């Protein structure tokens, strides 16, 4: 797996060997000075569409720039339009694509993943989705989430939450008929809508499992918090009421 910091260091090194300023390199590539600065700081990667031009200007090879032969070969085959044949011949893995993701467009990453799944008969797991999540569209993620038997593992879905919209996460939670212990959704709570959290609380109340709601207390609407407080007072459950009190 290549490092964006290391690639950035090499871009700066090759640029200085050519006695070029960041501004001059940016002008030669038709991009902004800020883009070159971000590359050299390791904050971002050159887009694959710029790699050929970049190595030409810097007078180096893609191998020398990336420092990882497997990924540089993958990039070169993508540039040549031969990525499908390369994936099939070299048994490129989902992890390899995740590593290359910072330099690929979402559509390219998704196309590579589909090729891997088709050619190598690889199966997509929740761990795989977490690896590629920053580099694919939300729509693509949701297609796989809908296909995978992971909806009972809400703790696992939490790792994907930063890459999914509130509506998508609500849909995931709503698809589960029996969630059981609400501790499983606490990690998702910051990303869920008020409506879904209210529904979860109502579910716990209907089952008589008010104590399961404790992890949701910081995210409750005022009306829902008061409803819980009234029920706890009615039951004389002062221990739970004390936990809820700071959020009333």
UniProtKB/TrEMBL annotation:
PROSITE patterns: HTH_CROC1 (PS50943). The keyword Ubl conjugation does not apply. Gene3D superfamilies: lambda repressor-like DNA-binding domains. SUPFAM superfamilies: lambda repressor-like DNA-binding domains. Residues 11-65 form the HTH cro/C1-type domain. It holds the Pfam family HTH_3. GO terms for molecular function: DNA binding. The keyword DNA-binding applies. Keywords: DNA-binding. This is HTH cro/C1-type domain-containing protein. It comes from Anaerocolumna chitinilytica.
């Amino acid at each position: 797996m290549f490092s964006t910091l290391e690639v950035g260091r090499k871009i700066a090194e090759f640029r200085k060997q050519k006695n070029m300023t960041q501004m001059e390199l940016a002008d030669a590539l038709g991009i902004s000075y800020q883009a070159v600065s971000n590359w050299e700081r390791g904050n971002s990667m050159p887009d694959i569409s710029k790699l050929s031009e970049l190595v030409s200007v810097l007078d180096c090879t893609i191998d020398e720039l990336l420092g990882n032969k497997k990924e540089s070969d993958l990039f070169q085959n993508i540039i040549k339009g031969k990525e499908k044949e390369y994936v099939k011949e070299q048994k490129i893995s989902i992890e390899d694509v995740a590593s290359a993701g910072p330099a690929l467009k979402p559509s390219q990453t998704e196309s590579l993943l589909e090729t891997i799944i088709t050619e190598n008969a690889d199966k997509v797991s929740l761990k795989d989705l977490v690896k590629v999540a920053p580099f694919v569209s939300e729509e693509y993620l949701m297609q796989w989430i809908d296909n995978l038997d992971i909806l009972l593992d809400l703790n696992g879905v939490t790792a994907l939450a930063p890459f999914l919209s509130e509506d998508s996460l609500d849909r995931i939670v709503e698809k589960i008929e029996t969630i059981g212990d609400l501790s499983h959704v606490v990690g998702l709570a910051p990303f869920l809508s008020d409506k879904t959290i209210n529904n979860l609380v109502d579910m716990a109340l209907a089952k008589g499992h008010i104590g399961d709601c404790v992890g949701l207390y910081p995210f409750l609407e005022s009306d829902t918090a008061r409803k819980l407080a009234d029920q706890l007072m009615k039951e004389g459950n002062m221990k739970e009421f004390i936990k809820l009190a700071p959020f009333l």
